[in-house]
Predict the 3D structure of the following.
Amino acid sequence: MNIVTGIVVYVIAWWLVLLMVLPWGVRPLEDPKPGEERGAPEAPRIWLKVLVTTGIATAIWIAIYFFIEANLFSFREHALP
């Protein structure tokens, strides 16, 4: 895996994990004030979710990297000639 492929795989994994982590622990406002959206989260904790996302995406990227480097599966062997 070259550097560009590694970065692309990491970015895709990071965004997919972020979209899965964002709903964790979201609770709507109990008593919204005038002008506040009812569905807005009370405490979104975005930076915690970014850190969790980075850790999970890094673990996924490492697993993908070793899977590719160990040559456990080759897409080129299964591609049509």
